[in-house]
Specification:
alpha+beta, five-stranded mixed beta sheet, four-stranded antiparallel beta sheet, 8 helices, 24% strand, globular, binds ligand DP6
Amino acid sequence: WVLMVTARTPTNIAVIKYWGKRDETLILPINDSISVTLDPSHLCTTTTVSVSPSFDQDRMWLNGKEISLQGGRFQSCLREIRARAQDVEDKKKGITIKKEDWQKLNLHIASYNNFPTAAGLASSAAGLACLVFSLAKLMNLKEDNSQLSAIARQGSGSACRSLYGGFVKWCMGKEENGSDSLAVQLADEKHWDDLVIIIAVVSARQKETSSTSGMRDTVVTSALIEHRAKEVVPKRIVEMEDAIQNRDFPSFARLACTDSNQFHAVCLDTYPPIFYMNDTSHRIISCVEKWNRAEETPQVAYTFDAGPNAVMIARNRKTAASLLQRLLYNFPPQSDTDLDSYIIGDKSI
Ligand code: DP6
């Protein structure tokens, strides 16, 4: 027999960034972060997990290619989930799995991203969240999404925020064992559904410096990161929570843009410096800034993760249409810029 579960998890985009760890193994961050979860029909991971007594080892395929499961992070997630596994009974198939059996049974995991892997589009976030969620369903875990987020966190920090739709906060927590470092939902997907997200894929190539090694170097070498984590982000988190609750777009846009810019500033302050944005990214920022300044209030927020791709959040559909027009005019795809395509998405599930 084979027992299977399939789940789909969207990616999330941080509007107050996570950058820097206080514990590398448990993946505990040096500051809180806030993200918005995308609609799963646009950027998501779909994962099928299966178990059968005929499987002789744990195996995993990503986008059809077998990958190693030896990494410490995968193993931590699997260990944490197996430790919480419950009895499972499928009456139709006549299958009973006792909780202690999960330690011996092997798993096959097949995962697909519908967007470029490791191009700074938070593929690890959707991937690890989906892995943890689907395994938790297969093994009948009793934990709620917040408790599952603490397991997903150990796979990749940003993954913990993909367990919820809408606006999500990853609370850094105080405990050394990481038990209080988990995600909570600030507002659900219906709360602010005017927002439209447009992602300009400036380059779908794999990034040169992974987030993991980049943030490690920043923590060790940047003189600015401590100021960011201790002084700047705590205030921004409070202001961002207010902006989200009040659907206050001007504050939301100011906070998201300045936080993205500060994140890239600490990357530049890292030694050797890390450049995630390129000339096209900078030109997109100038274009949005110029437009926002020409209007009475800001129309669009931008944010860039560990790559050159621009994530833009328009205040409503009308603004999004106008943004798209401006982008197509200024950055025609297939011209001498390396802008590959545009992905348009709603904000949430
Ligand atoms: C810039 O979650 O990919 O996207 O925890 O080492 O796996 P690890 O890093 P990762 O870092 C994401 C960094 C970011 C900002 C964010 O998503 O908050």
